[in-house]
């Protein structure tokens, strides 16, 4: 056998899984289509719960820490929410991913670049992954290859995937421009417009929970024009986000999906790095548990991710009414008790689903 585990995709989900498996002395191969650093469409915002979930500090790649956020609606109303603690750490995604991969390789994971995964054969004893560079044999396979996952397609592992969509661009930051983190809910796109300030530029973008049909470059230009008065946006890039994972049930004996490949991003805000890291770690824990007997990994992994799936379902149900009635959604978010709950929950590293369901359990004191 070449490896204990082969992991397709070296993004946050794949690296999180590989890191934990290597800590437990498993022989792990990470595959990716690119050498790192590589570009990935992403605003690079890491919530406190993501920083808490990661096994190492990512301080060297943090550009700015935000403890305030502006929440607006249709560019008119705006409320500034403040916290004593960090609400979001801003990174450049290509740097963050390269940093995580470097940390993982230091734990003795192997890394190969393959351009295509052509076929996957799962037997009772192993999985063969056929690539353009040859065949790799391992006891288990983790599909961490993102929203358009080849592993998902080739193994027919999950056909209920849904796709949100986000389009982003870069604006240089000068003294005249806002440096607040901002979410502006826009009734026209079933989602929101964001501003994420870094050190020398802002990442601006649009998210839609309904996929790409409501988003366009023109809408991004319009947002930037209305918000900042200018119309230059550099490096525009759009990409889907994997959602719908509350319906994912791993059925394969030796193959599981993690992160966006399994639709495990939050449909309300499109946050995916946290769920990618957590599901990667859970897949590693599941493989570790079954590896001595070489038992099926699916049911154990499904048990471990059941909390994530419940959480994402709450976010999905909330997104349904939130984006249908954006006025009411905005009012609910900025109404005194809920705006405090939002900031406290974020700062404490709670998931959005938990904030929505259990805000009554948040501490009374100011955070
Ligand atoms: C514009 C935009 C902004 C976003 N902003 C944020 C944000 O601020 N914060 C946040 O938490 N989330 C954000 N997200 C969501 C987040 O980017 C994803 O949820 C997250 O990247 C999922 O991580 P992953 O490891 O599952 O997949 P990915 O990050 O997509 O990683 C998959 C990896 O697999 C590799 N791969 C793909 N196909 C193959 C193949 N056939 N063989 C081998 N390797 C392959 C890819 O090269 C990649 O390295 C944003 C998304 C978009 C589109």
Instruction: Encode the helix/strand succession as letters.
Output: EHEEHEEEEHEEEEHEEEEHEEHHHHHH
Question: Tell me, what's the shape?
Answer: globular
Helix content: 25-40%
CATH architecture of the domain at 3-64 and 92-156 and 246-321: 3-Layer(bba) Sandwich
Q: What name does CATH use for the topology of the domain at 3-64 and 92-156 and 246-321? A: FAD/NAD(P)-binding domain
Ordered list of secondary-structure elements with their pairings:
Elements: E1 3-8, H1 12-23, E2 28-32, E3 45-46, H2 48-53, E4 62-66, E5 68-73, E6 77-82, E7 88-91, H3 93-106, E8 110-113, E9 117-122, E10 127-131, E11 134-143, H4 150-155, E12 162-172, E13 181-186, E14 191-197, E15 201-208, H5 217-228, E16 234-243, E17 255-257, H6 273-290, H7 298-304, H8 306-324, H9 326-334, H10 336-347, H11 352-358
Parallel strand pairs: 1-2, 1-11, 2-8, 5-13, 11-17
Antiparallel strand pairs: 3-7, 4-7, 5-6, 9-10, 10-11, 12-15, 12-16, 13-14, 14-15
């Amino acid at each position: 056998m070449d490896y204990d585990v082969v992991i397709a995709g070296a993004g946050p989900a794949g690296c999180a899984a590989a890191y934990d498996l290597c800590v437990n002395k498993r022989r792990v191969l990470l595959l990716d289509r690119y050498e790192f650093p590589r570009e990935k469409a992403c605003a690079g915002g890491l919530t406190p719960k993501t920083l808490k979930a990661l096994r190492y500090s990512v301080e060297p790649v943090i550009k700015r820490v935000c403890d305030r956020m502006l929440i607006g609606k249709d560019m008119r109303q705006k409320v500034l929410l403040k916290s004593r603690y960090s609400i979001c750490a801003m990174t450049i995604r290509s740097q963050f991913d390269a940093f995580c991969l470097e940390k993982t390789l230091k734990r003795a994971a192997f890394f190969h670049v393959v351009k295509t995964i052509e076929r996957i054969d799962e037997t009772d004893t192993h999985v063969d992954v056929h690539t353009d560079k040859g065949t790799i044999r391992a006891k288990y396979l983790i599909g961490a290859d993102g929203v358009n996952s080849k592993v998902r397609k080739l193994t027919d592992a999950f056909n209920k995937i849904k796709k949100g969509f986000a389009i982003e661009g870069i604006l240089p930051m000068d003294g005249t421009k806002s440096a607040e983190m901002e979410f502006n809910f826009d009734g026209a796109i079933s989602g929101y417009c964001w501003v994420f300030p870094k050190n020398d530029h802002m990442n601006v973008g649009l998210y839609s929970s309904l996929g790409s049909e409501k988003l366009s470059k023109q809408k991004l230009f319009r947002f930037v024009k209305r918000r900042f008065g200018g119309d230059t946006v550099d490096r525009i890039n759009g990409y889907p986000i994997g959602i719908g994972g509350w319906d994912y049930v791993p059925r394969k004996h030796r193959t599981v999906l993690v992160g966006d490949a399994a639709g495990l991003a939050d449909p309300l805000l499109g946050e995916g790095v946290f769920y990618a890291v957590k599901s990667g770690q859970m897949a590693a824990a599941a493989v570790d548990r079954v590896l001595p007997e070489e038992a099926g990994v699916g049911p154990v992994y499904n048990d471990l991710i059941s909390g994530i799936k419940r959480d994402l379902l709450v976010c999905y149900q909330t997104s349904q009414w939130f984006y249908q009635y954006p006025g009411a959604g905005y009012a609910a978010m900025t109404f005194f008790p809920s705006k405090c709950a939002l900031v406290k929950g974020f700062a404490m590293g709670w998931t959005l689903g938990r904030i929505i369901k259990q805000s009554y359990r948040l501490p009374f004191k100011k955070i």
